[in-house]
């Protein structure tokens, strides 16, 4: 048997077993040590190392060696990537199941939070792996751009923001669904634009093509804000809708001035600031996403270093203006 496969299997087994052991006995122990083990910083660092290491190991086993000049090898690589993703998710799921089994509770927000931290750890594991396998750097960067797309990151951010502020899952879910419905015009317009040639790339990387995209985004943001006000939504929902509109306006002004910033990074940073208002834990998730995207968007050839770095102060300013400014 391949020694790397053996090590990887042992790593996964230890993760699941230790999760069960800690869930069963740590809460009943006293003293500084057990409290340190279950503290939030240690919890986040541990998950990042564990699932970053797992992603690194899976990539080492399944993605190398491969002849990148062979077209058929690329097809096999896609299948291997699927297998790696399923295996990684299986270990995450088994670990959470083992914990809940010994804690005698159902899966809830805490487990979803852990899963998102695990995704951040996995992303950093893959970034680290490409440092030793630079031939795969472009593909990994492109994959991270898709996995951490602003559409997905926005929905995760709104869900966390509304749940933390309202503390009611059904109510938070309804307002997130309203955001999804309001975003449909943008999605339909983007699909049409791809069909007729308005947008040359999936993420509309060319600055000169973004005018129509901003119009579509402004339509969705305006619709969400209008519906939120009309339906007497909670203040946090109205603020989030206003933030979306302000973000579209700011990026449109930056683009019209002849500049370009990374929307992927700016959205992650903005949401990190927004969720910090009701929660001290959620910003970690968006910090992970923003950091990974800062690397990925440059390595994918979509943005320059300056364009991703300028997205950070833009996102910080937008989030702070709405959730910490006079309007709050």
**Straight-line N-to-C gap:** 60 Å
Helix content: over 70%
The biggest beta sheet is recorded as: none
- The average pLDDT score comes to 83
Number of domains: 2
Q: Which H/E pattern describes the elements?
A: HHHHHHHHHHHHH
Rough outline: globular
Radius of gyration, in Å, reads: 21 Å
Relative strand content: under 5%
Structure described in brief:
The chain is mainly α and 328 residues long. Helices cover 78% and strands 0% of the residues. It folds into two domains: 3-145, no CATH class; 148-323.
List its traits:
mainly alpha, globular, 328 residues
Describe the overall structure.
By secondary structure, the chain is an all-alpha fold. The chain has 2 domains: 3-145, no CATH class; 148-323. The protein has 13 helices and no strands. The chain has helices spanning 3-25, 32-37, 40-62, 71-103, 109-132, 137-147, 150-166, 169-196, 210-230, 235-256, 263-275, 283-299, 305-323. Helix 11 runs antiparallel to helix 12. The longest helix is centred in the first third of the chain and has 33 residues, at 71-103. The N and C termini lie far apart (60 Å).
Topology:
Elements lengths: L2 H23 L6 H6 L2 H23 L8 H33 L5 H24 L4 H11 L2 H17 L2 H28 L13 H21 L4 H22 L6 H13 L7 H17 L5 H19 L5
Helix pairs in contact: 1-3, 1-4, 3-4, 3-5, 5-6, 5-12, 6-12, 7-8, 7-11, 8-9, 9-10, 10-13, 11-12, 11-13, 12-13
